[in-house]
Amino acid sequence: MNGNSSWRDDAERNKQLMLLLTQHQRRIFSYLYTLVPDRHDAEDLLQETNLVICEKFAEFEPDTDFVAWACQIAWWRVRAARQKYARSKVVFDDTVLAAVAHTALELRHETDQRHEALDQCLKKLHARDRELVLSRYEPGSGVEAAARRSGRTLVAAYKALGRIRKLLLDCVGNQLASEVVS
Amino acid sequence: MKLADPEILELTELCNALADGTLTEAQRLRLAEKLAASEEARRFYVRFAGLSASLCQYAGEMRAEAPDAVRPFWRRPVLGWGAAALAAAAAALAVFLMPDFSARETAVAAGDLETQDYVAQVTDLKDCVWAKPSAALEPGDQLERGRRLELVQGVAEITFDCGAQVTLEGPASLVLNSAWDATLPQGTVSAVVPTEAIGFRVSNPDVDVVDLGTEFSVVAKPGSATEVYVHKGKVQATARGGEAHEQPALVLTADQSRQFGRGGSAEIRHAKPKFKGLARLARREQTTGKPGAARVAPPSVTVPVAPAAPQATPVPVAKRFANALKFDGRFEKQVAAHGLTHNAQHTVTFWARVPAAASLSGAGAMAAWSSGGGKGRGTPVHIAWNTDPAAGTLGALRTEYGHAAAVGSTKLRDGQWHHVAVVFVPHGRGKMHVKQYVDGRLEGSTTPALPKHPKERGKTPASDVVWLGRRLGSPEHFHGELDEFGVTGRALAPQQIKALLNGGPSETQVSAGVGI
Predict the structure, then answer these.
(1) Region B6-13 average pLDDT
(2) Is A11 helix (H, G, I), strand (E, B) or coil?
């Protein structure tokens, strides 16, 4: 009986882990990307973070803030990456990195809202601009590839991307503000 | 405290540069400074980075809609992960969470880029033998971003657009990543880095050396550790090799050296004798014996501004700028500048003072001309200060070439004198590379296409003049002062621009102080 009970506990625990991980991957990725603003580096660190979360999940206290706990693990992975790769993976020094991490943790609750609002804002973009910005962020792509695909020069693409990001940032802010008002 | 509009503009510019991988060392330091100082700046940054993170995810979804693509991990349905995953051990679980690495971006070959910016130029050569004779260089040659130099023997001096002067001693390979950044796979380089170019970087798989205002040498030998020697000032050296993660970044000061390899960093035995030879290389005593300034040939065409009759009486100001022209929004000056309107290399230099209270509506242009064609087919060129917040820092230097514009970061609108230099270099692919310097520091560039009328290219327009204090075809006039306007028929090197800034006679014979 004890063996069956233990198996059920483990299975339940794994199920809970899976649900929490899938539910909050976006927030953890966003937190990592804020500290290491490069898609591939952030993905590397997300993978490492996921591994540690799996290893240490027994230490997680149910009904506490999973994202805050996971971000703490992510933070230490970033610190380790800083030591390992120095400046190649982390842009800021320790003091600034810690301050940014603190702010990112504070703002973690708005990640999903902003993500959903961005979906609406992308739909409002001119099709050519939407295509450029999405192709820029596609896996395996970059500004040069996006410029080629959109028929823009590299310089024009850089400028357009700057303009589009500003538009999207303002749009997301306005969208969230209007939701609060309504 | 809420961020003011100029702060938001600056943060947006810095965050965009970071997002696109074009952040210079100076910009990185500036961003770090802003983030350290302000909680509101950090909130802005976090939201900006969050936007990029979300865009990565949405773009991944778009790609995943292709039939042969892997659905991105963050939108994989939970059930789709399979019952096996639920029952798997924690270590195995991670396998299902792995992001899609299959389509990792590979480095884009230099030749693949549609637009290649120039980032450096050859300023001196001695007894050079290049790996490919077809790739042999001449003094004055402009070098594109991504260019790989393969020097078999001899000494080549390369001046980066930021002002860093690098001496390469063969056999050596050097890759020019940007105006601020080079990779040294092998060989010996020595760098003299002026204040304006602090942040210049030389790296390879062993070490990342960031200049903090100095002269230094890097020696990379295949199969050996990379050696760093500091002759003056200091550098930050960070080990990048194998076990190097145990070691923090090091600051090396004058007469210090260190080697970096797979095991991290270590002292160099018997470093002193090597110092002497490398310091000589850094100061270029081996080749011409003349330290410091760039040694490109003087300009073939020097175009002093002719003392044309002004259309209004200028008001002189004191001291160095006693003969400066003062523009109050009503005056303009027309000067002859033969050759400037050709689609050829040239550099325009002058001093400018813009009142701190200058209004956006009265910005006008400091200098304007039509380049590359007559009969209204020329490309209008305007050197002005930026009035478009969407384009960059308000009040920063803005050079428009047709519809393209380079925008700097230093605010000219502060009531102080600033030295302005704008360099025009025709690109072999029907483009014009425009780069601008403010107070000797590289600030912005653009590479617009030349006019689409082949017959008109190179043809001198009927009115071969430069207008000071107004825009072409517009009633807008400039408010402020201009002095020491000069034009030379070459792309000046950063050291030559700095010589003008410092007021001394320069090798380039540019007519500083030509009496406007």
Answers:
(1) 91
(2) helix
Give residues 144 to 203 of B whose Cβ lies within 8 Å of A.
none
Q: Which of A24, A156, A129 is nearest to B431 (CA)?
A: A156
Amino acid identity of residue B450, one-letter, is L
CA–CA distance from B294 to each of A73, B93, B186, B289 (Å)? 52, 60, 24, 12
Closest residue by Cα to residue B505 from B287, B307, B298:
B298
Can you list the domains of chain A with their CATH numbers?
2-106 (1.10.1740.10), 111-181 (1.10.10)
Q: Which one of A9, A15, A25, A163 would you mutate to disrupt binding with B, by most B Cβ within 10 Å of its Cβ?
A: A25
Q: What is the mean pLDDT of the segment spanning B271-281? A: 78
Domains and CATH numbers, chain B: 5-96 (no CATH), 115-282 (2.60.120.1440), 302-501 (2.60.120.200)
Chain A residues lying within 8 Å of B210, measured CB to CB: 87
Interchain pair B42, A166: CB under 8 A: no
Tens of pLDDT, residue by residue over B224-235, are 889 999 998 888
Q: Which of B46, B62, B249 sits opposite A103 (nearest CB)?
A: B46
Q: Which residues of B touch A18 (CB under 8 A)?
A: 78, 81, 85-86, 93
The minimum CA-CA distance between B25 and chain A, rounded to whole Å, is: 10
Q: What is the pLDDT of residues B350-390, one digit of tens each?
A: 999 999 888 876 688 999 988 765 545 578 899 999 887 77
Question: pLDDT digit string (tens) for B147-180?
Answer: 899 998 899 999 999 999 999 998 999 999 889 8
Measured between CA atoms, how close is A182 to chain B, in angstroms?
Answer: 22
Segment among A42-51, B111-120, B176-185, B276-285 with least mean pLDDT: B111-120
Of B124, B146, B161, which Cα lies nearest the Cα of B492? B161
SS3 labels along B256-318: CEEEEECCEEECCCCCHHHHHHHHHHHCCCCCCCCCCCCCCCCCCCEEECCCCCCCCCCCCCC
Interface test with A, best of B10, B25, B42, B401 (most A CBs within 10 A): B42
- Cα angle, residue B418 at apex, residues B416 and B424 outer, rounded to 5°: 155
Q: Does B85 touch chain A (CB under 8 A)?
A: yes
Instruction: State both tokens at A168.
Output: 């999207």
CB A175 within 8 A of CB A120: yes
pLDDT of residue B377: 58
**Residue type at B106 in one-letter notation:** T
Give the Å distances, CA to CA, from B206 to A114, B1, B250, B259, B271: 41, 43, 14, 9, 19
pLDDT at position A39 over 90:
no
Per-residue pLDDT reduced to its tens digit, B234-256 = 888 888 765 545 567 788 988 89
Which DSSP letter does residue B386 get? -
* Residue B91 near chain A (CB below 8 Å): yes
For residue B319, give how far its alpha carbon lies from the nearest alpha carbon of chain A (Å).
41
Which of A35, A115, A122, A137 to mutate to test binding with chain B, by most B CBs within 10 Å of its CB? A137
Written as six digits, the tokens of A106 are 């504070």
> With a threshold of 0.90, does the pTM exceed it?
no
Give the C-alpha separation, A167 to A120, whole Å: 12
Q: How is residue B291 written in tokens?
A: 């330290």
Task: Find the closest chain A residue to B248 by CA distance.
Answer: A83
Rounded Cα gap, residues B22 and A147, in angstroms = 15
